[in-house]
Amino acid sequence: CYREGALDNFDTILCVGQHQIDEIRATENVYNLKPKNLVACGYGQIDSLLKSYEDMPKEEHDIKKILVAPSYQTDNILDSCLDEVVNQLGNGEYLLIIRPHPEYKKRFPGKMEALIQKYQDKLGDNIVIETDFSSNVTIFTADLLITDWSGIAHEFSYTTKKPSLFINTPMKVINPNYEKIGLTPIDISLRDEIGVSLDIDELMSLKDTVDRLFENQDTYSQSIGIAMHKYLFNIGESGKVGGKYLLNILREKQENRRL
């Protein structure tokens, strides 16, 4: 997800989890870079979402809400296989909410308009296209997320402990030399820890997979909790850890000035 060299010129990095430390150290080794000061901090965004979700009223849905929230890279779900998703899941058994990535709406207004027109006759009580991104309520009241390579899956599953279903569209690769590092990126490895991934030619089994995910939500809730503690430092405390580190640095600088 990072461009090659994106982190090379930082002296200190407040790291989300051990996987990030491993990737940075491996990058330093491959490219013969000066070792950085890596702080086991955590992820403030997830901490904030967890708190917001904890305070949010919860309710069981008579009709399960499925959120389709893809990324915006070439051949994402909207451009490659939305018809199959709608045909299998848009028959009234679920509430299907299609939420394009904000960048998709911004970069491809023509495609966005064509999409709305294409499904105009199907929109209603059971199929919705959402283009208002001012709130995360839709995301965190969904019962299941369907995405491709969007990082929204981590936020959704970590926060709600509900599984994500990944469709293996062509992978979003920002660093084409990522394999030099010799580690599997978390964006690949995590897919089958917090949910299930399907290739496009496996979408004939999409509804069966969705039903299986709903039937086994308790099992996935446990595995998602394990993954979250495996990949995130200091859950709920990252702000304190980062703040303490920064204050200590400032104190050291003040003391050095006095010497």
N- to C-terminal separation? 44 Å
Write down the secondary-structure element order.
Answer: EHEHEHHEHHEHEHEHEHHH
What is the overall shape?
Answer: globular
Portion in beta strands: 5-15%
- Low-pLDDT stretches are none
Provide the helix percentage.
Answer: 40-55%
Structural class: alpha/beta
SSE layout:
Layout: E1 12-15, H1 18-31, E2 37-40, H2 44-55, E3 65-68, H3 77-80, H4 82-89, E4 95-98, H5 102-107, H6 109-118, E5 127-129, H7 137-140, E6 144-147, H8 152-160, E7 164-168, H9 186-189, E8 195-199, H10 206-215, H11 217-231, H12 238-258
Parallel strand pairs: 1-2, 3-4, 3-6, 4-5, 6-7, 7-8
Helix pairs in contact: 2-8
Describe it:
By secondary structure, this protein is of the alpha/beta class. It is 45% helix and 13% strand. The strands form 2 sheets. Strands 5-4-3-6-7-8 form a 6-stranded parallel β-sheet, sandwiched between helices. The termini are far apart. 29% of the residues are buried.
Give a short overview:
This protein is 45% helix and 13% strand. The chain has helices at residues 18-31, 44-55, 77-80, 82-89, 102-107, 109-118, 137-140, 152-160, 186-189, 206-215, 217-231, 238-258; strands at 12-15, 37-40, 65-68, 95-98, 127-129, 144-147, 164-168, 195-199. The mean pLDDT is 94.
